[in-house]
Design a protein that fits this description.
The chain is mainly α. 79% of the residues lie in helices and 0% in strands. The chain is globular.
Length: 322
């Protein structure tokens, strides 16, 4: 049962992330230039999107796909309420910051998902391509819930209207590229993908390794600079992905997803956004403290998920499916 968890630590993808952490903590001058890091990110978004679209074109849209989408949307909307309660009671945060942080923990981390998919494929439990659509669908519901909670379930606040906030979410570069590439993959299908497959297939693992090296450097350096995160918030940043990941995996098995797809749903529920949601919070809740929600999601939850929780979720999915 625990073979899946152990295999995570021997994956080159994870080891490059560990290398980035170690280099930053050792105060090495190792860096990935920002233009290169952005190019790596764009490549990963396009690759995971188009491959997911091709997979759906092969399998078609059926009840399994629709149930996975429904589960993801419901999870994205409801998980922030649980996070909000924990952040208010145990974390001792005020309403606005609790709502802002809660939105991050109902949303998703694309990089965590991509890393998990690579690991699951190596274990022989590749998730269905439709999970890319589930991932994209979980972004907006979590932001809406977080804003409702931060604004006191309908009280006025913030500087942006709901329409402006939704526009910001759906035009975010990662969402546009993911969904756009997904649609391209669905339209082109396997035949259309063949001519470009060498570009998106051959270099994917190497690019992901370099990207996670950069993420390790960023996460460790933010931890060393952190000032606003207390020990209570640190515990919450580990507790939430464990509980959310277990719940998402169990939900995936309950609605009939295969082992890899159920584990992928668990990873999506366990992850915390540090790209799209911070951008939305910056617009809609400028009074919330970025030092809290960015440090928790990027510097604590993200490393925990990559190093430990992906393996735990994989093991749980195998156990529940067996």
């Amino acid at each position: 049962m625990f073979d899946a968890a152990i295999q995570t630590f021997t994956s080159p993808v994870v080891l490059f992330f560990v290398l980035g952490l170690a280099a930053a903590f050792a105060r090495s001058d190792l860096t990935i230039p920002e233009p290169i890091a952005k190019a790596l990110s764009l490549y990963l978004m396009a690759a995971i999107g188009i491959k997911g679209g091709v997979a759906v074109a092969k399998s078609g849209i059926d009840a399994t796909v629709l149930s996975a989408l429904g589960a993801g949307i419901i999870a994205g909307f409801t998980l922030p309420f649980f996070a909000y309660a924990v952040l208010k009671s145990f974390g001792k945060l005020d309403r606005v910051n609790s709502g802002a942080v809660a939105a991050h923990y109902g949303s998703i981390s694309v990089v965590t998902f991509v890393t998990a998919v690579e690991i699951f494929e190596g274990q022989g439990n590749a998730p269905g391509g439709y999970m890319v659509a589930v991932m994209a669908a979980m972004e907006a519901p979590a932001i809406l819930s977080g804003l409702l909670l931060a604004r006191g379930m309908g009280s006025k606040g913030g500087t942006q209207s709901s329409g402006e906030m939704l526009h910001e979410v759906f035009t975010n570069s990662s969402i546009v590229l993911l969904l756009g590439a997904f649609v391209i993959g669905m339209i082109g299908g396997p035949e259309g993908f063949d001519p470009v497959s060498p570009f998106f297939e051959a270099g994917f693992k190497g690019v992901l390794c370099l990207f996670l090296l950069d993420m390790g450097l960023i996460a460790a350096r933010r931890i060393m600079d952190a000032r606003a995160v207390t020990w209570r918030l640190t515990l919450i940043a580990i507790f939430l992905p464990i509980v959310n990941g277990a719940a998402g995996t169990a939900l995936g098995i309950a609605i009939g997803l295969d082992t890899g797809s159920a584990a992928a749903l668990g990873v999506l529920c366990a992850s915390a956004s540090y790209i799209a949601v911070p951008a939305a919070m910056r617009l809609a809740l400028p009074e919330a403290d970025p030092g809290i929600y960015l440090t928790m999601s990027l510097s604590i939850t993200f490393p925990f998920n990559v190093l430990i929780n992906i393996g735990l979720i994989s093991a749980l999915a195998v156990m529940l499916a067996g």
